[in-house]
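Suppose a colleague, Dr. K., hands you the sequence of a protein chain of 118 amino acids and asks what its three-dimensional shape might be. Before reaching for any lab equipment, you can write down a predicted structure in token form. Begin with the sequence itself:
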Amino acid sequence: MPRYLSLVRIDESTAPAGGPSAELMQRMGELIEEMTKAGVLLDTSGLTPAAQAVRVAWDGERTSVTDGPFTESKEVVGGYAFMQCKDRAEALEWARRFLSIHGPEWTLACELREIVEY
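The predicted structure, expressed as tokens, is then:
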């Protein structure tokens, strides 16, 4: 069965200042439990804010390290879900369900990518 990585993209400038509410965390916990029982969810987590990130870049000759926040980044990866689904349609449905548990105060998207198996 194919595996998918859902990258949760968020605009940190519009996210609720206090982070996810207790109600959202409860809904998220229920969805995570359902996905785990269905054998779909392999791993998931939120990520620290971009201000706490570090970027390592390669320019063809050397690496450079830049501490966050990154001024050119409006939308950042705020979390991820690693899933194993029967097909792309199933992975899309789980991503839709994840997004729909968020309230109107959240603006986010899931970038869904199939894992290439070598």
